[in-house]
């Protein structure tokens, strides 16, 4: 695929603590791509996302994302990297003692926003984008799972990052809500954002075919091409 390369791993080993999860990962992702990472539980999907987010160290091999060297990234550079990444977690990680607006305000202030009017306008903008304008005064516990995930997506795009990393974003949602969340990611991709999504939601993949990486037996393979749907369960050994 044509386009600027925004993610690259070369001969990378992915560890979870001291356990080697994936070996010899070679990966290139170009600007504007939509890439799924799938595989059975424990095969390295989430660990790969965490390495790209600099949440786990890249212990062997080389890697680069959004212009940052993952192998030698300094602690002070991690926050700068994360301003270029939007990360969507399966477990939401919303601050339970703050309402929706305050959760988003916290992120903007932490990343250098100071003007109250600009903060208000940006929060209103992203909440409109995810269909949550009427919920900004609600506390996280007052929201459904799908609503919380919409807030998490709003949080991820606050600083208009070029790359979105999503770790099982529909894993705890019912099929109808999952479809709605996937539509949001589709819209973000159509707006030009690069999306890497770890998922075992085969229905979501079938509804939006895209390049798919498969984690299995300690390796990752780029074996599913766009617009080609295979028997996922057979492929993954279910």
Automatic annotation (TrEMBL):
Annotated ABC transporter domain residues: 7-237
Gene3D superfamilies found in the cross-reference section: P-loop containing nucleotide triphosphate hydrolases (3.40.50.300)
GO function term, MF aspect, one: ATP binding
A Gene Ontology biological process term: cell division
Transmembrane segments: none
GO CC terms, sorted: plasma membrane
PANTHER family: CELL DIVISION ATP-BINDING PROTEIN FTSE, IMPORT ATP-BINDING PROTEIN
Function comment: Part of the ABC transporter FtsEX involved in cellular division. Important for assembly or stability of the septal ring.
Family, as annotated: Belongs to the ABC transporter superfamily.
Record-given protein name: Cell division ATP-binding protein FtsE
Organism: Mariniphaga anaerophila
